[in-house]
Amino acid sequence: MPLPDLDSSVGHSFGLEFDSVIIKQITEVSGLKMEQDVIELKQNTFDGKYAIKKLPGRPKAGEVTVTRGLTEDNSFERWIKDSRFGRMTNARRNGAVIVYDYEGLPIKRYKLINAWPKSLEIGTLKAGDTSVLTEKLAITYEAMELD
């Protein structure tokens, strides 16, 4: 569902989709960006003045971190085991970070190409604490496409 002109989206809900499996319980997504190198071309103009031109270079790989509450779902653990033991043909996957509106309809997809998990961090375990336990999965990717 596209957003009407001049309306901004609210980060209401997020999901992570890999291999047609959607995890909607994502509470935070950080580091999602598309970046490329900048090439500086130094030259003289026709009238002899020194000029620097900036040109687009190669795209850079990226890294995104997704956070969710700790549950019995072990999909993050299974995925990171593949990369830890060098089974990169199983670990590298194409997927997407999906942003949902307040009605649960997808409004934006950020496709991650050749993504694999770099690290899995479990939140602080503290006796007597009443905060929700979380797990953070750092995912590295070779390219990102907007959909």
UniProtKB/TrEMBL annotation:
Pfam families: Phage_T4_gp19 (PF06841). One of its GO terms (molecular function) is structural molecule activity. InterPro entries: CHP02241, Phage_T4_Gp19. This is Phage tail protein. It comes from Streptomyces anulatus. The lineage of its organism: Bacteria, Bacillati, Actinomycetota, Actinomycetes, Kitasatosporales.
